[in-house]
Design goal:
single chain, alpha+beta, Cytochrome Bc1 Complex, Chain A, domain 1, 2 domains, 7-stranded mixed sheet, 12 strands
Length: 450
């Protein structure tokens, strides 16, 4: 849809209050056929709109620029905890009504929190978009919160932590790995928070967090689908225009010092077989090194023909599963690699083979065939993630929040295609170094082996 942005803004602003005044700040292609337009309200709310009439559906997403890295010692996990509290209701829509109303119109809704962001989303019939706008704006302004609700949700999160971390070998291993790798930066504490911190939250803690971070100047709304843009923007002005900016004071984040010596940690856990996890320092998502590092990670761990899976799973049959992943964090993170071992296999043996394969990579490099295969796999992954309205909205909101560019997925796609063998040699020499690694070795507790 072609629009005259200046005339549209003038019409929308004619009777709008000061905080709701709107202006177009950017218009960029989103792939070969779509356009993303970015509008700002005077109160700081950012709105990305992608009209797409390929299906009569719409995705409405809210991205908050707050995650676990914005917390403070003693109050870890608040961002995740608050994601739970946002479903507790408002005076206009008591607890349970949001889900009931959205389910009644066939909507899908949920939320998520990680290190750099918090994210709420709905995918629903396009005609029901006004309902999503009303409900999201309402809980962003008028959340009802008291001690009883806080204590009730605290028990839910405590149970979640026990299930996903304290009683789960993968969760515990990952938590220990990040704690050992990041001794200064808040990426070293878990998004769900430490148990003692979860147990200590007060209503005042939560309200302070809400007032500071759940503000229009810390939020981005993304709408993708069959929408009438002028009507949509008018609804957003009406729903969000009464909100005031917050004075956001983020805690100072300590930079993680360079790691010059390998770190190791041994764990005992009630599991049937041993486990190994290794973390290597990696660049932030916006760093030019991130894309070639992702390609190299795929060559090592992407699919059954990758080097590590061929060696450890298929050839030597030492592990039931192995994996590698690059954190998509805004600041430098980790390349995680690890394996679930077969019974009777030692973690040290598998650790040795992981480093043998990395050594072979340093000596022999990567073949052109391996590079092309991984480029194709990663390209397919990006394009598949953009097939639906919800997928498009999620990628726009994520990239805008983490790297400041709502169209970064297409720049990343071009960058994947441009990676060279020299780029991979640079990544291997810069990041795949044992002296900057962190290793966690897990052994079964007495009596837990079969």
């Amino acid at each position: 849809m072609s629009i005259d942005a200046k005339k549209l803004a003038q019409r929308l602003n004619r009777h709008a209050p000061k905080n709701a005044q709107i202006r177009l700040v950017a218009e960029k292609p989103f792939g070969p056929q779509l356009t993303v337009r970015t509008w700002n309200l005077a109160n700081g709310l950012r709105v990305h709109v992608v009209p797409d009439d390929s299906a009569p559906v719409a995705a409405f997403q809210t991205w908050l620029r707050v995650g676990s890295r914005d917390e403070t010692p003693g109050k870890t996990g608040l961002a995740h905890f608050f994601e739970h509290l946002m479903f507790k209701g408002t005076p206009s829509h008591p607890q349970g009504e949001l889900d009931k109303l959205l389910e009644g119109v066939g909507a899908e809704t949920n939320a998520a929190t990680w290190t750099d962001w918090t994210h709420y989303y709905e995918t629903l019939p396009a005609a029901q978009l006004p309902l999503a706008i009303t409900l999201e704006a309402d809980r962003m302004q008028y959340l009802a919160l008291d001690t009883e609700q806080l204590d009730s949700e605290r028990e839910v999160v405590i149970s979640e932590r026990r299930d996903r971390v304290e009683d789960d070998v993968e969760g515990m291993t990952s938590e220990v790995l990040f704690r050992q790798a990041f001794r200064e930066h808040p990426y070293g504490w878990p998004t769900i928070g430490w148990m003692a911190d979860i147990e200590s939250y007060t209503v005042e803690d939560c309200l302070r967090f809400y007032r500071q971070y759940y503000a229009p100047n810390n939020a981005t709304v993304v709408v993708v689908g069959e929408v009438d843009e002028p009507i949509l923007l008018g609804l957003i002005q009406e729903a969000y225009g009464g909100m005031r900016r917050s004075r956001i004071r983020r805690p100072a984040r300590a930079a993680e010092p360079p790691q010059t010596r390998a770190r190791r940690k041994r764990l005992r856990f009630p599991t049937h077989a041993e486990k190994v996890a290794i973390g290597l320092r990696s660049p932030g998502l916006g760093d030019p090194d991130w894309v070639p590092f992702a390609v190299l990670n795929d060559i090592l761990f992407g699919g059954r023909s990758s080097r590590m899976i061929r060696r450890l799973v298929l050839q030597d049959e030492l592990v039931t599963e192995c994996w590698g992943a690059l954190t998509p964090f805004g600041e430098p993170g980790l390349m995680e690699m690890g394996a679930d071992l077969r019974e009777g296999v030692t973690a040290e043996r598998v650790e040795t083979i992981l480093w043998e394969e990395i050594g072979r990579l340093h000596r022999e490099g990567v073949s052109e065939r391996e590079l092309l295969k991984s480029q194709s796999r990663l390209e397919l992954g990006v394009l598949t993630s953009l097939e639906t309205a919800g997928g498009k909205a999620e990628q726009i909101g994520f990239d805008d929040t983490v790297v400041g560019d709502p169209t970064a997925s297409f720049a990343r796609l071009d960058a994947y295609r441009a990676v060279t063998l020299d780029d991979l040699r640079h990544i291997a020499g810069t990041y795949l170094r044992r002296r900057s690694s962190t290793t966690v070795l897990v052994r079964p507790t007495a009596g837990s082996q079969r």
